[in-house]
Write a structure and sequence with these properties.
single chain; Rossmann fold; two-stranded antiparallel ribbon; 22% strand; globular
Length: 209
């Protein structure tokens, strides 16, 4: 029997872990209210594609992200990726500073193993929450051999963006992260990541930092 890839999910809070007063509220929620293990338990399908464990790194709205957290997060990701049994990392994150965190990790994490950031535009309590499928896709991406050496990635709305080029373009739409000049690196088809291109810029294990 083939070994499932081992993926560690680091929770940092954000809308994907947000709680609202009702399932129809898409704004005005409290970010970072729900723990990472609860998010994992809500998507049992993840266990079919990977051996998943969770770690609550912090639990904030990403507008509160600061340099100290970035530095500690980079060190923790690097520590985990040095473990031979760990195949990839997923980081749940608020979208306000998701692109900045992704790019910082793209410059400072010294590993070719996949690191995938994932968020949501609707809180976890919403009847049409986008977080669960985003998280499932992110785990599949972090555990895939195709993602090795591609740098830090962003998995949202069935799209794969590279950390260097992605930017948030809308405050409410689920299709918010785009790479305007160079385009997406790939897409998800039935939960499987499909790459069409890769960045040739230096990153992660080859970065100067």
């Amino acid at each position: 029997m083939m070994r499932k890839p081992k993926v560690v999910i680091l929770g940092t809070g954000g809308t994907i872990a947000g709680r609202a007063g009702s399932n129809t509220e898409m704004t005005g929620y409290q970010a970072g209210e729900i723990g990472i293990q609860t998010l994992i338990n809500a998507v049992p399908e993840m266990l079919e594609v990977a051996d998943v464990t969770g770690e609550q790194f912090c639990n904030i709205g990403s507008f509160d992200m600061i340099d100290d957290i970035w530095l500690r997060l980079s060190r923790r990701v690097s520590e985990l990726l040095q473990q031979p049994e760990v195949d990839g990392i997923v980081i749940t994150h608020g979208t306000d500073t998701l692109e900045e965190t992704a790019y910082f990790l793209n410059l400072t994490v010294k590993s070719e193993k996949p690191v995938v950031l994932v968020g949501a535009m609707r809180p976890a309590t919403a009847m049409s929450a986008d977080g669960p499928v985003n998280l499932l896709n992110a785990v599949a991406l972090a555990g895939s051999q195709e993602a090795v050496g591609k740098g830090v990635l962003i998995a949202m709305n069935d799209q794969i963006n590279g950390a260097r080029d992605a930017t948030k373009t809308n405050t409410t739409h689920v299709e918010t992260f785009k790479s305007w000049e160079l385009g997406y690196l790939g897409y998800f088809q039935n939960g499987k990541p499909i790459f069409y291109k890769a960045s040739l810029r230096r990153h992660t294990a080859a970065a100067e930092f």
